[in-house]
Specification:
heterodimer, A: alpha+beta, four-stranded antiparallel sheet, 26% strand, disordered C terminus, B: mainly alpha, 21 helices, 2 strands, elongated
Chain lengths: 139, 382
């Protein structure tokens, strides 16, 4: 069992096949997309594989420490930032192959013209808190 | 002991499910009814402990089951059927529990399904506890369990099973260790102990011994902030010597039966570590021999990797690296082992590079942090 994050990018991923911005879809197409996403999550609850799903606002702020007693410095948002995360879904599955399969299905969500977006999703393993070495000779 | 002990309560769970099934309930319904009875027990027992815990659970669970049947209509006819079918109890409760182990680890189940079902139906944990232990939402775990039950709906509870599938499932639970408020390693140990009391097979004893010998080192295996303390640096005074002794006795009895299996061999390696008063006194030559035994049973790249470590300790870093050459570099933890062997061979620069590479590829946080520290130690830029 392992957890994976399927990351959706606003920017930074290679271009999808059906890459029309969402604000240029018909209301029905938007509706169909939302329905697909919600059905997908619901189905994964049903298979016992769903962990979490969140969307992020497109614009954020960069913050950093600026020395004792001083307020943090803020900057941005930067229009030129190359990588921008739109949101994620976390799954808990039996194998990497299963994670690939599910990411493929999520990428098939319908977009403009009701056709699959073929969006590139980034699949990242989630690090566990448990060392795998309970049984290895060095532990 | 307090009048109400959840551990005592949970020991009865598989037996109670078994009794309901013998009376004619199907497994899924019996399991649900017993969960309901458990919830009721947690509510009622602290103030009003029953004299006969198991009898109480059977009574409440059976009533819940009948309620379910009634609500599904055709009540009278079915009730009569069930009342007639109550068995006189010729089958022992040990057999009942054992069949549940087999059923919950049935080969038609995926590993995660088998684990979840075993923890609920054999371990008596609630869905919420299992969900917390595996860090998934409760509805997800509830669905995982009900799907598992549907998968095995047609399997008869009296079909004999393969104990190897049960052992693999318990091994998986043990490896999950400890997260949330459920100690999965301790739970796996409890269930394996229960299994070993019911099944007299050397490999069951082997797994029990292996778990005891590893569990005995638990307090020493992590530092104050959860960091990994490698075997060679552990404070051996913190090992649980009573648990080590128990593991060794169980292992020796298993080995004496001359029917070697993988768990016995792994336990033998763990016992050799436990036997060394200091890391320097470890009998690495014998450990290498046990790895050879394991490889003679089945080719296993992880075993080959650990064997290279043992050879490095027994015969030096160069010999270890030669043994490592037989392992595919894609095996998890290959870089970490290569780093360790290069350090043994005196090449600190290469070792540091490899530790850094291993850290970048690590899939769990404590291991990554440990590997980063190793790289930093060798590079020591102060």
């Amino acid at each position: 069992m392992a957890k994976y994050l399927m990351l959706k990018h606003y920017r930074g991923a290679p271009q999808g096949v059906n890459d029309v911005p969402m604000d240029q879809w018909t209301p029905e197409e938007v509706e169909a997309h939302m329905q697909y996403m919600s059905d997908f999550a619901q189905r994964l609850v049903g298979t016992g594989e769903f962990v979490d799903s969140q969307a992020l606002a497109a614009e954020g702020t960069f913050v950093r420490f600026d020395g004792e007693g001083r307020p943090p410095v803020t900057d941005g948002p930067f229009a030129e930032t190359k990588d921008l995360i739109a949101g994620w879904m976390m799954i808990d599955v039996d194998s990497y192959e299963r994670a690939l399969e599910l990411a493929g299905e999520l990428s098939a969500a319908p977009g403009a013209g009701g056709k699959p977006i073929h969006e590139w999703l980034e699949l990242r393993p989630v690090m566990s808190d448990v060392p795998g070495g309970e049984f290895n000779a060095e532990s | 002991m307090s009048p109400f002990d959840e551990g005592v309560l949970r020991i009865a769970v598989p037996e109670v499910i078994g009794i309901l099934v013998r009376r004619g309930a199907d497994f899924a319904a019996a399991e649900d009814a017993v969960q309901d009875a458990l919830v009721e027990a947690v509510r009622v027992w602290p103030d009003d402990p029953p004299r006969d815990a198991k009898g109480w659970l059977v009574g409440v669970a059976w009533r819940r089951f009948l309620d379910q049947v009634r609500s599904r209509s055709s009540r009278q006819r079915r009730e009569e059927v069930y009342e007639d079918e109550v068995s006189p109890g010729v089958v022992s409760s040990v057999d009942d529990s054992l069949r549940l182990y087999f059923l919950c680890a049935h080969p038609s189940l995926s590993p995660s399904a088998a684990v979840a079902l075993t923890l609920r139906a054999v371990g008596g944990l609630t869905t919420r506890q299992i969900a917390q232990a595996y860090l998934v939402p409760e509805p997800t775990m509830a669905q995982r369990i009900s799907r598992a039950k549907r998968t095995i709906a047609d399997v008869r509870l009296d079909e004999p099973g393969d104990v190897a599938t049960v052992l693999r499932t318990l091994y998986l639970v043990f490896n999950e260790g400890y997260s949330g408020d459920v100690d999965l390693a301790a739970e796996a140990l409890r269930l394996t102990r229960q299994l070993a009391a019911a099944v007299n097979q050397p490999e069951v004893s082997g797994l029990l011994a292996l778990m005891l010998l590893h569990h005995a080192r638990r307090a020493a295996r992590r530092g104050p902030n959860g960091e990994i303390v490698p075997l060679a640096e552990q404070d051996r005074n913190r090992w649980d010597t009573a648990m080590v002794a128990e593991g060794v006795v169980i292992l020796q009895a298993a080995l004496a039966r001359d029917d070697l299996g993988e768990f016995q061999a792994q336990a033998a390696i763990a016992a050799l570590h436990a036997d060394a008063a200091t890391a320097a006194e470890t009998d690495w030559v014998q450990i290498v021999e046990w790895y050879d035994e394991l490889l003679a049973m089945a080719e296993n790249p992880v075993v080959r990797l650990n064997r290279a470590v043992a050879i490095g300790q027994a015969d030096g870093g160069r010999a270890g690296l030669a043994a490592l050459a037989e392992v595919e570099p894609t095996v998890p933890r290959y870089d970490a082992v290569a780093a360790h062997l290069h350090e043994l061979a005196g090449d600190r620069t290469r070792a540091a590079e490899l530790f850094a590479a291993a850290a970048a590829a690590a899939l769990n946080v404590p291991e990554r942090d440990h590997l980063v520290r190793q790289a930093a130690r060798l590079r020591d830029v102060r």
